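Notebook entry, structure prediction.
Reason for the run: the old model in the group folder had no record of what sequence produced it. Starting over properly, with the input documented here first.
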Amino acid sequence: MKRLPQPRGLLSLAPMFKLTTIGTRAEIEAAQDLLFEADPTPVGAVDAREEARTLWRLDAYAEEREDIETARELIASGFAGLSLAIEPVPERDWVKVSLEGLPAVIAGPFVVAGSHALSAVAPGCTSILIEAGPAFGTGHHGTTKGCLEAYAKLLRHNRPGRVLDVGTGSGVLAIAALKTGASLAIGTDIDAESVRVARENLSLNHAAFRGHMLEASGGRHGRIHAHAPYDLIFANILAGPLVRLSAEFARLTAAGGHVILSGLLNHQEPLVRAAYGGNGLALVDRLHRDGWSTLVYRRPR
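New structure, fully documented this time:
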């Protein structure tokens, strides 16, 4: 199951609704793209998988009936032939159930895991403790893993001083920066619950004294501008917001600094690349993981 880079709800123990449809692989992948690209997306999680030799299944989840109905209308408008069913999901801590027992994620020198798996981490790795919870970012999703791998490559040449993590979710990227020598990391998210969880994760990882988590949209917060410019900006959000924030990120990045972007599907790269190239940033690396792209930009000195 893929939780979206900017989740709307899908909190633990909350009642949910599920939208299900079955079709060809092309139809299901295109319907999934519609939900991913909606801004804001009406759902909190999407699962697309092979059901039979020629059929695929899509399950989308939302807390509010109104949101799941919006998702149905969105898919129905593009795929009139698909049969769409909505059903309530019994109350349960679905996030915890889905994440508990997952193996540790290894991305370069980083190992991201809950306490159940972190004890088995080999010495010499940079361990990041992220317990099961409602905030996005356990390292298992291709976007988070791509950001960590891209950051690990940057670390071979330099270590950033000040870091901004937009769409921080669980705080995993900001924590990775702090554990590898960053002097300051500010994480932001539009979801208050994610900010709460990220603050807890800072404490669990003994990084709270140099990390700050804020409820904010994009770069619009006084504390963000007070500490600018940044040696590194993470933005693991969605393609639309990435494009809209390109000029702002360029202004917030220090000369010689880097921007690591993810949350975009492979086919969305051209729009994002045009936006950041048009704002004077140079593409220096890109990674593809599970259909998702991670782009690394540098602001010239």
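Summary: Residues 1-13 have pLDDT under 50 and may be disordered.
The old model has been moved to the deprecated folder.
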